[in-house]
Design brief:
- It is a single chain.
- Helix 1 packs antiparallel against helix 2 and helix 2 runs parallel beside helix 5.
- Helix content is 69%, strand content 4%.
- The model has no long low-confidence stretch (mean pLDDT 83).
- By secondary structure, the protein is mainly alpha-helical.
- The relative contact order is 0.15.
């Protein structure tokens, strides 16, 4: 029998997923006015995914959110993007983490969003945090079946 508080937690978990992704995107995109916060955005999404695991269980979460399977690719892509955005200025003879394009240069935009190296670095940090935390949650939620069998037989 399912208790009433279990139903409430499941509904809240499902309802919080979309707003948390929107808030995370807003934290990253605010960078056009000031420095963004890729780590905080990644933690917001990761905590929401953790709530999904707790409320719904591993099989349901991985069925409802098939993108969680891409966590290793997210980690690799985030690492490569972070390295590229940090050290791309070296290829141009500038120090690492230089702001490119420079303030006096033309900046490519998508709508009002300016595309430049700090934004790429924030997206990379976001990808790393979400990817690593999701992989950890998956490992904690579903331990290796072989190890579980060994523990049972003893």
């Amino acid at each position: 029998m399912v208790k009433r508080h279990d139903i409430i937690v499941r509904v809240v978990a499902r309802l919080l997923l979309t707003p948390s992704v929107v808030v995370a995107a807003a934290l990253i995109v605010k960078e056009y006015a000031e420095v963004g916060d890729g780590f905080s955005a990644g933690m917001i999404v990761s905590l929401t995914v953790a709530l999904q695991y707790v409320a719904l269980g591993t099989p349901t979460v991985e069925e409802v959110l098939p993108l969680l399977r891409l966590s290793p690719a997210l980690v690799i892509g985030g690492t490569l993007l972070a390295l590229a955005s940090a050290f791309f200025p070296l290829a141009l003879g500038k120090p690492p983490f230089s702001h490119l394009p420079e303030p006096s240069d033309h900046v490519t935009t998508v709508g009002t969003l300016e595309l430049f190296t700090p934004l790429a670095f924030d997206i990379a940090i976001f990808s790393l945090v979400v990817g690593v935390m999701t992989m950890m949650l998956h490992q904690f939620a579903s331990p290796d079946e072989k190890e579980t069998e060994k523990e049972r037989t003893g």
